[in-house]
Specification:
Elements lengths: L1 E4 L2 E7 L13 H18 L7 E8 L5 H9 L9 E6 L9 E8 L3
Parallel strand pairs: 3-4
Antiparallel strand pairs: 1-2, 2-5, 3-5
Helix pairs in contact: 1-2
């Protein structure tokens, strides 16, 4: 779900459990990278991009996946240009889901 409110774009519960060909992704790294692919598509449809993200909340199924998620999380951003992030653990309805990201982007109109 994506809501545009003035110059802000709110994107909720984005996941990446399968790749673009429909194959299931098993690792938290692969799911995190695919989540950003999916997030980028949503932002593009709203007239923004990954670079416009100012804040994220990352939900992990297992806190043991934090370091692996963090490495994959950095890949779509320019070094030093990371958005504010909060990470928490959560149970998900789908047992295959390892990571979910909620994002806020700022794109002046």
């Amino acid at each position: 779900t994506c809501v545009v409110a003035g110059d802000f774009i709110y994107v909720s519960h984005t996941v990446g459990m399968t790749d673009d060909q429909g194959a299931r992704l098993e690792s938290v790294e692969a799911q995190t990278k695919q989540t950003f692919v999916n997030l980028a598509r949503t932002l593009d449809a709203a007239g923004a991009s990954i670079e416009d993200i100012v804040q994220t909340t990352v939900y992990l199924r297992d806190l043991a996946d934090f370091h692996a998620m963090r490495e994959a999380y950095r890949s779509p951003f320019k070094p030093g240009a990371y958005p504010a992030r909060m990470t928490a653990t959560s149970e998900f309805l789908d047992a295959n889901c390892k990571v979910m990201i909620v994002a806020v982007a700022y794109k002046p109109r």
